[in-house]
Amino acid sequence: MNASTRARVAAIVVAAATGKNVSSIYDYERSAYRSMSVKVGNRQVTGYDYEASAHFSGGGSDLNFYDYDRSAHVQLKLKDKSFSGYDYGTSDHFSGTVNDRSVSLYDYGTCQYYNYSA
User: Fold this and answer.
1) What is d(CA 113, CA 73) in angstroms, rounded to the nearest whole number?
2) pLDDT score recorded for residue 43
3) Number of CB atoms found within 10 A of residue 8's CB
């Protein structure tokens, strides 16, 4: 996965887990905030990444979304405080946990953990 997709996944997971919109996500690897607008509700995901000037959206029973920036689908499932998914753009699996507004994401493509907070 690339860095922007990981940040988008983290923001979506926080929005879904807390039921609140997300306006930015802090990426601990970059030591910087990434400005984005993410809303999850009524089985719909809508988002805009201001840093990349890119939309992403989706819907259905899971949190699957289409990343218009990369023209790629991302499969995302959240159950309780755990999530998992697959990035069709890079053919990478990922998984992680969410605790309130903090996310730990493991990217199987890079074999690394990434941490975020909103």
Assistant:
1) 22
2) 84
3) 28
The type of residue at 64 is: N
The CA distance from 83 to 97, in Å, is 6
Contact 26, 117 (CB under 8 A): yes
- Each domain of the chain, given as residue ranges in start order, spans 3-117
For 10-35, b/e burial (b = at least 16 CB within 10 A) is bbbbbbbbeeebbebbbbeeeeeebe
Q: Could you tell me which of 36, 34, 40 has the C-alpha nearest to residue 20?
A: 40
Q: Which CATH architecture has domain 3-117?
A: Beta Barrel (2.40)
Using one digit for the tens of pLDDT, what is the confidence trace for 31-84? 999 999 999 998 899 999 999 999 999 988 899 999 999 999 999 999 999 999
Question: Is the CB of residue 8 less than 8 Å from the CB of residue 67?
Answer: yes
Cβ atoms 102, 117 nearer than 8 A: yes
Task: Please tell me what DSSP assigns to residue 118.
Answer: -
Record the tokens describing residue 37, joined without a space: 């607008």
